[in-house]
Design goal:
This protein is α+β, with helices and mostly antiparallel strands and about 190 residues long. It has helices at about 1-10, 165-185, and strands spanning about 20-30, 40, 45, 60, 70, 75-80, 85-90, 100-105, 110-120, 125-130, 135-140, 150-160. Strands 2, 3, 5, 6, 7, 9 and 12 form a seven-stranded mixed beta sheet that branches. The protein has a five-stranded antiparallel beta sheet with strand order 4-1-8-11-10, with no helix packed on it. Helix 1 (about 1-10) runs antiparallel to helix 2. The longest helix is centred in the C-terminal third of the chain and has 25 residues, at about 165-185. It starts with a helix and ends with a helix.
Length: about 190
């Protein structure tokens, strides 16, 4: 039994983080199917369907480093900045009042969970991971045309416990088993 537990404890791998992994990203403003994101080159996208090249090529996550940014001629600014264990999304809406969707794809998202750290968007932001796809969505509603920057920060964690967690659990189970054997011997 103990060799099987040792294999279980030492064969699990801890999550290594996102730095150095590749990710692609898309930004959709409102119901339009046009992708507004470009890599963090800061290229300007023009209004009414004339877009800068999209980030269909993977971007390598680095910290410090801004992975995705969109600057619209109307003053809209959106960015997505990944770290080793999180994502910061910023938005300068300039009066925009429709839904916004960001979709990121990376094999590094497999098996991760996402949780909100902070969010000052007036209408809230949600994030979810399904397989290798991270979707960030913020609701429609009137945003002020003041140039104010809204930020939502998310943290990632592994859905699989790390090896140290398995070691602690195994030690606890073994200790309880040892105590049970000692109690039975005393009763005899």
């Amino acid at each position: 039994m103990f060799p099987a537990l040792a294999v279980l404890v030492f064969s699990s791998t801890a999550w290594a983080g996102l730095i150095g992994t590749s990710v692609t990203g898309s930004l959709f403003l409102g119901p339009a199917l046009a992708d507004y994101y470009v890599s963090a080159s800061g290229a300007t996208v023009s209004y009414l369907g004339i877009f800068a090249p999209t980030a269909t090529q993977p971007v390598t996550i680095s910290d410090p480093g801004l992975e995705f940014r969109m600057t619209h001629v109307a003053g809209l600014v959106s960015s997505a900045d990944f770290t080793d264990s999180g994502l910061s999304v910023t938005w300068v809406p300039r009066g925009f009042a429709d839904i916004v969707t960001q979709i990121f794809t990376s094999n590094a998202f497999e098996g991760l969970t996402v949780s909100e750290v902070s969010d000052n968007f007036p209408h809230g932001v949600t994030a979810s991971i399904t397989g290798s796809t991270l979707t960030v969505l913020w609701g429609a509603g009137a945003y002020p045309d003041t140039g104010e920057t809204f930020t939502a920060v998310y943290g990632f964690s592994s859905a699989t416990p790390e090896a140290s967690t398995f070691t602690l659990l195994t030690s606890a189970i073994a200790g309880l088993g040892f105590l049970g054997i000692r109690c039975r011997r005393r009763e005899k």
